[in-house]
Amino acid sequence: MVGLKEELLKSIWHAFTALDLDRSGKVSKSQLKASGGRRVLSHNLCTVLNVPHDPVALEEHFRDDDEGPVSNQGYMPYLNKFILEKVQGNFDKVEFNRMCWTLCAKKNLSKSPLLISDEDAFKVWVIFNFLSEDKYPLIIVPEEIEYLLKKITEAMGAGWQQEQFDHYKIALNTSREGLSAWELIELIGSGQFSKGMDRQTVSMAINEVFNELILDVLKQGYMLKKGHKRKNWMERWFVLKPNIISYYVSEDLKDKKGDIILDGNCCVEALPDKDGKKCLFLIKCLDKTFEISASDKKKKQEWIQAIQSTVNLLRAGSAPPHKEARQKRKELRQKLLAEQEELERQMKELQAANENKQKELETVRKQLEAAAARAAEEEKKRLQTQVELQDRFSLELEREKMVRQKMEEQVAQKSSELEQYLQRVRELEEMYKQLQEALEEEKQARQDEETVRKLQARLLEEETAKRAELEKWHLQQQQTIQMTEAEKQELENQRMMKEQALQVAMQQLKQLELERKEALEQYEEVKKKLETAANNTKSWKDKVAHHEGLIRLIEPGSKNPHLITNWGPAAFTEAELEERQRSWKGKKATSE
């Protein structure tokens, strides 16, 4: 039951970690106590595991929880105590895994397109839980990845590319210890190790590996079975598992026809051909005997060996081959890891012992060097003493000769010293004369230097005065320039004002010309109206004089043309307007 509990915990771990986490990385108590959390992580688990669900226990368990699921009152302790300890093994593993897969797949499954279907991804996820290490977070190590990829490749009927996987393994080992479930799904779904295979082939291979590793299907296939009552032969789909052979109507496993319970007392025997049936073999159990016909001799032999191997495992009390192989691989990895750790420990001990030996050797070497140095020093002293004695005897023998020679040398030296003294006196007198001449030259040079310094001071004063005068002229020039600029600016402003006045006058002139034209037009209209009125008046007067005998002349007004403006008759004549025009043109020419 311990192994079953570990397998269940792996699937539940995926569903558990798929819940929304708070900032501290824990699932909050409120989330777990909420109806959704209870229903997903408690009720559904109890349902698929065939365990009675007790919601009161869940509420009691989380009553005083302040630390989240990692505390003594967390969800995992509740899961172990109230659910997993009650599991008896009478549940559908596929349904259980599918429920956990539903809770975690949507959040973790890669969004990129894969070469496998969601159903195949689910099967790979279940296989990952079977092959992963028993530590969290769950990973699958490179050795198990290689085992799984080999199984899938063999199921596809393709050749295994060991060199390609070795390159991938080297790249993987440099970055991490293994892959997560979702990375394994993405690796298989990417087609990196199934190039040239279609989706259906890959799917069938994954299904075959799933049946073997998860559903414990050791062998399956169509064979003929002889009935116990009717004694007729019917084709059935047989599925061999570690302790049972189930047979169905077809390979979809929907219509199950019966089971052959295997134990250590069962046996399988080959039968000779009879009744027109070939490739016969017999399965003997305690209560029943089953006659089966395979499709060919190879299939017959394969089934006999598979069933006999299963019976032998039951007799020995061993696990199924794939589980035993997985356990052996884990034990081998643990052994290699232990050996590696032991080797590293021994290497460290050897390194420490080597360092100690090196230190001891270094100490001995230093002691030997010190002893050799002392011996050399003693030998040097002995030789030095011998040489000193020889030198002393030689000095004593030559001492008298040296004293005589020394007296002679002293006499010669005194004579030489006297001559040198006289020569030195002469040289000092000559040097005194040269010194006097040098002092005179230095005095003259100082006088010349003082003269030059005064001349430089006078030139500096003159230069300062000239500089001040030049600066004064410069300031005057700048002031003059500024005044010139101001005058220029003022003239420019006047010119601009004149131009603006001229433009205004021209605009007024144009306006007057327009008004004049309009007045002329109005004058012509009025003139025509006056002429018409005069003609009408004259005709009317003629009629009156004719009828009434009255003769009276009515004189019209002046016939000289008058200018008319928008406000009535103008205050000036056309001649006066032309005179004003000539005056404005003259002013404009003068300003330009």
Automatic annotation (TrEMBL):
GO terms for cellular component: cytoplasm; lamellipodium; nucleus; plasma membrane. Its main location: membrane. It is found in: Cell membrane; Cell projection, Lamellipodium; Cytoplasm; Nucleus. Gene3D superfamilies: Pleckstrin-homology domain (PH domain)/Phosphotyrosine-binding domain (PTB). It holds the Pfam family PH. GO terms for molecular function: DNA binding. SMART domains: PH. SUPFAM superfamilies: PH domain-like. Keywords: Cell membrane, Cell projection, Coiled coil, Cytoplasm, DNA-binding, Membrane, Nucleus, Phosphoprotein. Residues 216-312 form the PH domain. Residues 322-543 form a coiled coil. Phosphatidylinositol 3,4,5-trisphosphate-dependent guanine nucleotide exchange factor (GEF) which, independently of RAS, transduces signals from tyrosine kinase receptors to RAC. It also mediates signaling of membrane ruffling. Regulates the actin cytoskeleton as an effector or adapter protein in response to agonist stimulated phosphatidylinositol (3,4)-bisphosphate production and cell protrusion. The SWAP complex consists of NPM1, NCL, PARP1 and SWAP70. This is Switch-associated protein 70. It comes from Illadopsis cleaveri.
